[in-house]
């Protein structure tokens, strides 16, 4: 067993283990964990400072997960967009390949909480081969996104087999990996893994930091190893009520990410997933946050704010509206909050 696997095995997976450190209602949380699994890595657990803090909220089960019954389990209609199991083909040129059924830790707000860490998400070697076959015989696909679960929880051997399989497909321009491992289990980013990733080019890795306190020295070193291996690093943040729905928190997060060579890519509006209602914010809250960042933060640090539409209709950007038309005149709001008339070309 490698060191990271030993550490992963030390994760907290039951409310009783939490109760040894914090006052929690074991019986109530056990009901939640029966439905949606819990796993908190030793590294992530050390980041908790107090009950209910932004780290706690992301990883400790909450009874409200069982109250939110109005929403669908699969709002993005991923199951109906899967030509073969564990592969979602929503856009003509891109395929989302769910190669791993488990994650280092289970995020309470996860859009795939219906199945991550559950038996239905187990991916077999046969599924992997069927997915690779589908990609190989579908030449419109140029971009494959390995996700899950978390692809970096697979063994180096299996990951290499998948990456080698993908690099033999001539119509692919790039491969992306989506992984929260740099945040939750940074020790998984070993030199051996980086050597394996270096051979597969061009490779983009979108990681998933949601709060500046997740940018630890260990996470920064993991990102440095990946960047040094030639992996292009991006970040996807989910806008979460009570965790990061605050312009100052996101400003610090996005600045901190650029400092560790990770480019903020998307800020996701919460999906309408059953069991996650207590994390939902209004779209207007996200827009207001973006407006307050614009003009006071490096443009490189500002991600695109997106909504993944229900029913698998795809992602759309949500942008503050700076341009206003009044009759023949065009007025533009300035980042400072003023307004100037812009000499629009007449058609
Ligand atoms: C998000 C997503 C993608 C990738 O979208 P980009 O906007 O290119 O990052 C591809 N397929 C599915 C099913 C997705 O949900
Ligand atoms: S790491 Fe990603 S896939 Fe896994 S539980 Fe968290 S959000 Fe879901």
TrEMBL record:
It comes from the Bacteria. One of its GO terms (molecular function) is isomerase activity. Keywords: 4Fe-4S, Iron, Iron-sulfur, Isomerase, Metal-binding, Pyridoxal phosphate, S-adenosyl-L-methionine. The modification N6-(pyridoxal phosphate)lysine is found at residue 315. It holds the Pfam family LAM_C. SUPFAM superfamilies: Radical SAM enzymes. Its cofactor is [4Fe-4S] cluster; pyridoxal 5'-phosphate. InterPro entries: Aldolase_TIM, LAM_C_dom, Lys_aminomutase/Glu_NH3_mut, rSAM, rSAM_sf. Residues 89-313 form the Radical SAM core domain. The keyword Isomerase applies. [4Fe-4S] cluster binds at residues 103, 107, 110. PANTHER family: L-LYSINE 2,3-AMINOMUTASE, LYSINE 2,3-AMINOMUTASE-RELATED. Belongs to the radical SAM superfamily. KamA family. NCBIfam families: KamA family radical SAM protein. This is KamA family radical SAM protein. It comes from Trichloromonas acetexigens.
